[in-house]
Amino acid sequence: MRLRSHSAETEGLSGRPAGGRRFNVRLPKIFGGQRRPSGQHADNTSTTDGHQSPHEEEPRKVNLTFEQMLEEQLFCEASQLLIKREERLFGEITEADALKRREEEADKLAADYRQLADLIVQALKLSLSPGEVSVEALTSAVKAINQEVVQDKQWKQRDRTQPAWRPSEWKKLHDDTLRSLVEQHMDNPSTPSAIEMEQSTILKDIHAMGRQLKEDLLLVVRTVKNCYPPEMNICNFYASLYHQNLSARLRKIAEFVLEDKDCTFLLRWVNEFYPEILQKPELAADIDGEALEKLLPKELLEPLEDQYLSKQEEELTTYIGRVLDEAKEKWSKGEEPTREDDCYASPLAYDIIQVVSGMVKSAERVVGDQHKAQSITCQLKDLMQSFKNFQNDIMKQSKANSGAFIKANLGCIKQFSDVLQQQSHLFPEDVRKTCLLILPDMKQSAHRYLLKPVHEALKPHYRKLGTNDWLNKPVFENLLAGIDQEVQDLQGSPDSCHQELIGQLHQEVTTEYVKRLLKGEIKLKDKKQQQEAYELMKDNAEHLCKLFDHLSSKEDWLKDVLTKIAEVLKLQDLPAIQMHIASLGTAFPDLSEKHVSALLKLKTNLSRADRKAVKATLSDTLRETSCVSARTFFSDVQVK
Known about the structure:
The protein contains 23 helices and 4 strands. By secondary structure, it is mainly α. It has a two-stranded antiparallel ribbon with strand order 1-2. It has a two-stranded antiparallel ribbon with strand order 3-4. The longest helix is centred in the C-terminal third of the chain and has 37 residues, at 429-465. It is elongated and about 140 Å long.
């Protein structure tokens, strides 16, 4: 029943309460309008001098009848009045005429209780209708309910027959009424927007229910909460009602086989949109969202998640395959990669990384679990292997544009490596580890391919390093000039990748230098030749480091390798040689006895026993040396 507003002449209001009995009382609108203070009547007496007469300075207190209390929406006071009547009526009465009188009065009291209950129910039903119920009326109704709860408890403690209406169970009536109210609101949500009208029926229904839930809960925390005592925790009670109602409705939807779009939206509502509503600061201050369970149980969520994640994995795999196919087609047609700042660049890695990142982050929001979201990248291992196979084909066929593609690929390898190391949350650990094994191998293969022509051109200079011609200064100068000329063809990869490539060349040239030196063709017979060899080798180290520093190499540690070896050539005292070899072995634990033996054979004035003592010192040193953070160099220097 809706309560109508009253004009200056209050209209009579008739209606039928829940119990079926018609009543006719004069009631103002439950929401809106001012009502007189409890126990007072309006006084319209006029004065002649603008002041109240002495007897009017204090308002007259009058006792309102039950009907007047109902008319004034004084539900709490009405309840108190009925309880007093109940207490008087059910005292210790034994006379027959009193018992008969009590029976008659009990019928009237029961009817009054029903009438009061009906009006309280109507007030509760208007709780979520802004402008239709006053805060005072709803507050009074709640107080009346709590009074009846107390009276029910008192009757349970009494050892005599209680009235027929006890227990009244008005708290249950309150809860059931609000539950019915929530059901009604969710059955008839507010009008959808024009955009929502174009959506599927499922999307439209979920949107509408969610919007209604949000609007009603905001009304509860802003207004309704003020009508209840804190101990009733009304905000969380309403939240639980809406949660249960929405959960039941979404369960019915989830039981159907949903289209992918509807499946995704349903998951987003459960894991993203709904939690965001409860986390709004205005709601979170009064509603404990964490105490509420998931809107859907595990047995309904998991099939939806599997459907969504399978679709995302399929889309991601298809996209990456298409990007690779486009790169292959461009290479097959003989085209070159685009240039950015004079460097070859491929969009392959950037495009894939952006899509992977976006899809995994989106999947995490949809399913509400980072580990599950990562699963959509499980095919990345196979796709990375396809990328490696593509690079192998480029190098194997060695077309005119192959070099440009390999240089562009170095940029892609760097980008993939960075994202796998710095954004590990995007990938399952096994996928990440497998890809991080594939990429370094690809980089080394690319370096070998690009540096092979350089080493081929430098071979004539390398050959002279291992002979007595090495002692002639022009030999090394020609090598430096050859390096400076050949590296021009290495230009074209992104700066950081080019720097690594030049660093790799720097290390390989140094390795070739030491390998040729240790071949044993050079014989340094006395202290003078050994001193000259030391000075020459030290000078070579200086100039080689200077050249590669100019070419952007950051591997300046290679200078120390040559300098330390040169020091061995200069030293004459056995203890000094032993100490220096021990120092070299500590710096580079991959230094072997074979390397030391080859180096010491250059000094023909050193006896076999001396060489044996030096190698023994190295063995002792290596047993005590930790290789955890030490560099390696000599493992690439092959000696007989």
